[in-house]
Design brief:
The structure is a homodimer of 249-residue chains.
Chain A (H helix, E strand, L loop, with lengths): L24 E2 L11 E2 L3 H10 L1 E5 L4 E3 L7 E7 L2 E6 L5 E7 L4 E2 L10 E4 L3 E7 H10 L1 H26 L3 H14 L8 E3 L4 H8 L3 H13 L3 E3 L4 E4 L2 H9 L2
Antiparallel strand pairs in A: 1-2, 3-10, 4-9, 5-8, 5-10, 6-7, 6-9, 11-13, 12-13
Helix pairs in contact in A: 2-3, 4-7, 5-6
Chain B binds a DNA duplex (30 and 30 nucleotides) through helix 6.
Chain lengths: 249, 249
Amino acid sequence: MMRKTSDKRSGGGTGAPPPRQPSLAAIPFRRLAGTGPIELFSDTQRQQLLRQAIVRDFPARTIVYRADSPAEYVFIIGDGVVKSYRDLASGRRRIAAFLFARDLFGLAESGHYTNTVQTITPVRAYALHIDALAELFAHDPAIEYSFLCKMVHVLREAQHHNIIVGRRDAMGRLAMLLRLLRKHDPSHHLRTIPVPMSKSDIANYLGLSLEAVVRATRRLELQGIMEFVGRHEVRILDHSRFEALAAAA
Amino acid sequence: MMRKTSDKRSGGGTGAPPPRQPSLAAIPFRRLAGTGPIELFSDTQRQQLLRQAIVRDFPARTIVYRADSPAEYVFIIGDGVVKSYRDLASGRRRIAAFLFARDLFGLAESGHYTNTVQTITPVRAYALHIDALAELFAHDPAIEYSFLCKMVHVLREAQHHNIIVGRRDAMGRLAMLLRLLRKHDPSHHLRTIPVPMSKSDIANYLGLSLEAVVRATRRLELQGIMEFVGRHEVRILDHSRFEALAAAA
DNA sequence: CGATGACTTGACTTCGCTCAAAGACAGTGG
DNA sequence: CCACTGTCTTTGAGCGAAGTCAAGTCATCG
């Protein structure tokens, strides 16, 4: 049934110096020196949030909340990976996003969550009561600005997801997902990309059948572009062809 | 080449009492009485924004800005319809969203727009300089909160778009888009849905080829579910089957 | 060591894509 | 006012890729 505590997949956030918590990462929308995601909170903001937050640890495969249930809390991930999905009337499941350390989830619609969120690895999360958060916003526009930045960033990610799903070829979609996952790996100088989720999750994220995902991985392996090392790691063998495939958009 | 000013398609916002401008509409994320979108700005907020805003009128088919160009302004649509899209390396074009009156666009990434935005109908827009807006945010958390609400709302729409594109059947995708368009029609008690964009735009939004869109419309017409009245209006003939198709998700 | 869930593989079907060519519409200019 | 022209749209034929169904294997855990 449930894997116990033996799950060693980390999926992000285990870099050498553990970042202060809670923290939020995003690429700001205004012009800035760097090009990658930056930390949005200052130390004092972090402390303010931590005062309001409830630290919660979830084992792998735990449902944090279900779609359409009343939304009391917003969550910031300290460590671990979750999936945010919706089960459709057709019986299909659409995974809207995989979320990692420094990501945010739980902003709802009319007080009800729109997606179900379930952990993939063990997760530490910071739960912020929505009223407390609104209170904070009213007093501190800078914190609110950070959340706004994050939402803009998340919207861009959703649009990128749209582009991924819009591709017709399964191999290309898979390559794009792998590139996403690599970005979330703190130590991606290594040749292997951590893949914490199951192939079935991947299928639901990419809008493919499970079999199509399996066949796409097989073809990528046959072409010598990448290979699975166990079920939760991928090694890129031919970087240039991999990038070319993922970039074909 | 370019249609001149004779374009009569409205596409939203021509309801009897013209709303005060600029205005933003969204479903707030906190629990609330109503279930539909509400106006986010108060009168005083509107006036504050209007003081900063440049009112700009664009003819149909005008490019407001191009992807990757420096982002100086954020826009709120007063009236009309635009498309926000990105041309991919493969030669394909992905339309990320159609935007209507009371919608927002132009929040960028690192000071550069991520999508190209082009008008479909004539458009009146309110351009807000990003620095002025940030200034406003720092002084008025309530305005900032409105923008945050809007971004959360837009994110939900993007996820809904993901669900649409995730469907395999062209007819179902088309039905879902038509339902979206109906929502944006101020007078949708009528049997006809305004469809301001071309079928080619629809194809790029749905992730289909133009021909697939045409065939889907044909099949819907043959089955007596709906029919095109001219190129920019659709009449729903069988509401229950239409809804069933769109809801099958 | 048996069970459960995750994964793999094969055969067949279906649906949308591509290419190609013709038809319909709207704004333009005479 | 009407023919002109470019765009948008429609339709057909053939192909390929992903979906579905059905077995069967592998891995992990009790």
